[in-house]
From TrEMBL:
Region (Disordered): 1-24
Transmembrane segments: 74-95, 107-127
Comp. bias regions, Pro residues: 12-23
Domain spans labelled General stress protein 17M-like: 26-99
Name of the protein described by the UniProt record: General stress protein 17M-like domain-containing protein
UniProt entry tagged with the keyword Membrane: yes
InterPro entries: GSP17M-like_dom
Keywords: Membrane, Transmembrane, Transmembrane helix
Keyword RNA-binding: no
Amino acid sequence: MTSQFSGQNRPGVPPRLPTPPTGWPIGSYGTYEEAQRAVDFLADSDFTVQDVTIVGVDLMLVERVTGRLTWGRVLGTGAASGAWFGLFVGVLLSLFNSSAGASAGPILVGLTIGVVFGLVFAAVGYGSARGKRDFQSASQLVAGRYDVLCQPRSAELGRDLLAKLAMRPVGPKDSKD
């Protein structure tokens, strides 16, 4: 009998439900890029990378403020967003329009109505916040460190390979361009 959870513990098949990672630590890195470089090195060394997991430890949500919100910016963004949606709807309507010579009409109507609705929804949304959030931001989940774990059967070899990587100077392939 097959269930929606079949393949849960099969090798090579990632689990469908959130599960804690397993394995022995073979490396720890300050950035995701460094951990990714380590796993790439393992792959280049013909290591069985299916046994490897990169785990972000000490997670934190970082919200970077990207700018100040003003009525002009809010209305401009709302109008642009509405225009794109209205243009999309207008083009779809014009594709199904059977009357000859009236292909621009549905596009212009869709564009105009899209701009109006975009302005209204943006104004209502910003106005209802009443100045409680007058900034734009982008959120990102970041880890304090990234551990590379490996299944016990391959951990010793993986640790030895990563020790060789640590002894190598950063070359042109490994450097940022």
